[in-house]
Write a structure and sequence with these properties.
Layout lengths: L1 H22 L24 E8 L2 E7 L13 E7 L6 E8 L14 E10 L4 E9 L9 E7 L7 E6 L22 H4 L10 E5 L5 E7 L4 E7 L6 E8 L5 E9 L2 E8 L8 E6 L7 E4 L2 E2 L10 E7 L7 E7 L9 E6 L1 E3 L2 E5 L14
Parallel strand pairs: 17-22
Antiparallel strand pairs: 1-2, 2-3, 3-4, 5-6, 6-7, 7-8, 9-10, 10-11, 11-12, 13-14, 14-15, 15-16, 18-19, 19-20, 21-22
The structure holds (2R,3S,4R,5S)-2-(hydroxymethyl)piperidine-3,4,5-triol (DGJ).
């Protein structure tokens, strides 16, 4: 009897060990665009419409914390932060900016819309500065404001400062006299006094430390590139309109070989559409359109995704990852991430689908 019992015990131990070994996958070693992406706790990463800050040899990914179902597209939690040393394995660092739960009139009350958060570090003030697209609770997408928050520590907590419509009372550098005339559908002139609409957005810090806020303005018809003050907290009062009537959103900007590159999308709500790219010698333009950077199957839908950020790699100069979202508006938390290496051909950024890839693709500079 004893023998049988110890036999059973050995068998049970073997099965338990075997199963737990099979269930505990080791660290990730590759990217699998569009698939579930478990963090180091095994939970699908929840940082949509995100961007990445490199700080002290670590990558920090900030993004929209989405919740279950359709209402999960609104902000019920806030902006989440993850950290990683290798870009494959991400540790959940918690909620960097929390929605306000006890004040329904607060700008970032639970149920408002907080999208596309981006964080940059200001070396002069020692502060981490977060900007995001804010829509007020119950007002759909009509508020079109930019929210600003700051923190002393990269992972937060971020303290909400205010929201604004950028560049109130300021004409863009490249506005013509005709642009300044009020008329039907002249949204630039309509919003001159109160500030320009600011929806999809990103931030870009140039080599000289100057930072820019790039946002969809004029009912999404035109993008603005707007200089920030030296503390990165406000628009500095200098901006240009780019791609007027181009109807673009999801902007990203990066710098390669001394040129400024743009990748963005068209405007079709949560549905994917073809990406657009452009290049300029100065961030102020003129910007020359380069067409859809995607090639191959599903190029016309950006491989079923929409741009959110272009990440320049640490310690690998001139290597960039295109980051995009595959939205799942019916169950927002299930949104997926599409990350692809940017290749360059004839000074044009090119994106090609890969089922699975790792950073070794940059060893030969794709
Ligand atoms: C597309 C934008 O890029 C997203 O950030 C979000 O605002 C959706 N539209 C909402 O429909």
């Amino acid at each position: 009897m004893r023998r049988i019992l110890s036999g059973i015990l050995v068998f049970v131990c073997f099965i338990t060990l075997h199963t737990s070994a099979a269930e505990t996958p080791g660290p990730l070693k590759s990217f699998k665009p569009g698939e579930l992406w478990p963090d180091t706790d095994g939970v699908h990463i929840n940082a949509h419409g995100g961007g990445i800050l490199v700080h002290e040899n670590t990558y920090y990914w900030f993004g929209e914390h989405k919740t279950e179902g359709r209402r999960g597209n609104n902000a019920w939690v806030g902006v989440r932060c993850y950290s990683s040393k290798d870009l494959y394995n991400w540790k959940n660092e918690g909620v960097a900016l929390s929605v306000v739960k006890d004040d329904p009139s607060h700008d970032i009350t639970a149920g408002s819309i907080i999208e596309r958060p981006k964080v940059i570090y200001n070396a002069k003030t020692g502060k981490f500065v977060m900007w995001f697209h804010l829509e007020l609770r119950g007002k759909g997408y009509t508020a079109a404001r930019a929210g600003v928050a700051v923190a002393d520590k990269v992972t937060g907590p971020y303290q909400y400062l205010y929201s604004l419509r950028p560049n109130a009372g300021v004409w863009p550098e490249n506005a013509t006299e005709e642009d300044k005339q009020r008329g039907k559908e002249n949204f630039l002139a309509r919003d001159f006094k109160g500030g320009q609409m600011s929806r999809d957005m990103t931030l870009f810090v140039d080599d000289d430390g100057k930072a820019y806020h790039i946002y969809s303005a004029e009912e999404n018809y035109t993008l603005n590139i707007s200089l920030l003050t030296d503390d990165y907290l406000k628009p500095a009062g200098k901006y240009v309109r780019v791609f007027p009537r181009g109807h673009m959103e999801a902007p990203t900007i990066f710098k390669h070989n001394g040129l400024y590159y743009f990748i963005g999308s068209e405007c079709t709500g949560w549905n994917p559409n073809p990406a657009h790219s452009a290049v300029a010698k100065s961030i102020w333009g003129p910007w020359k359109e380069l067409g859809n950077p995607c090639q191959g199957k599903k190029a016309e839908t950006t491989f079923d995704s929409q741009s959110t950020y272009v990440l320049p790699l640490m310690n690998k100069p001139d290597c960039f990852i295109f980051m995009a979202d595959r939205w799942r508006p019916q169950n927002a938390i299930d949104g997926r991430y599409v990350w692809l290496p940017i290749e360059f051909e004839d000074n044009r950024p090119i994106l090609r689908w890969r089922d699975e890839w790792d950073l070794s693709v940059f060893d030969s500079k794709p």
